[in-house]
Every structure is written in structure tokens, then in C-alpha cells.
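Progress against Task 2.4 (sequence-to-structure conversion) is shown through the following example record, which the project officer requested during the mid-term review.
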Amino acid sequence: MSALTLRLPDDKHERLRALAQSRGTSVNRLLDEVTTLLLAEFDAETRFRLRAQRGAGKTARGLDLLNKAAGK
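C-alpha cells generated for the chain above:
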């Protein structure tokens, strides 16, 4: 496990501490959860962009498949 030093303004740190306390957790755990969400979002966007790149230029084929599936 790695350690990370994060410099925050005092007021932001106090607000994070209050948020963590209201959720019954530590600031460390709260930031761990936030980074997990951000990384999951990044991974989803990366997968989407890769799939979009693979489908680039294949619009007509995709529409044909959708029409076929709809029975048109």
C-alpha cells in the first residue's frame, strides 16, 4: 500500500472531516471510496472510447443490423 500526501485548504479539510464523520468513516476511507468511483468512471469511459473506435466507419452496417433485428 502506498501513502499519498494531499495538500488542501484548511476549510476544505474540515468539511471533508465533517462529511466523513457524518458517514461514520475516516477521511482516509472516504477518499479511498472517492478514488475508487473515479477510477471506475475512467475505466468505463476508456472501454466506451475503445468500442467506439472499433465501430468507427461502420454506421451503415450497424443500422442494417438494427433494422434486421427489428424485422424491417
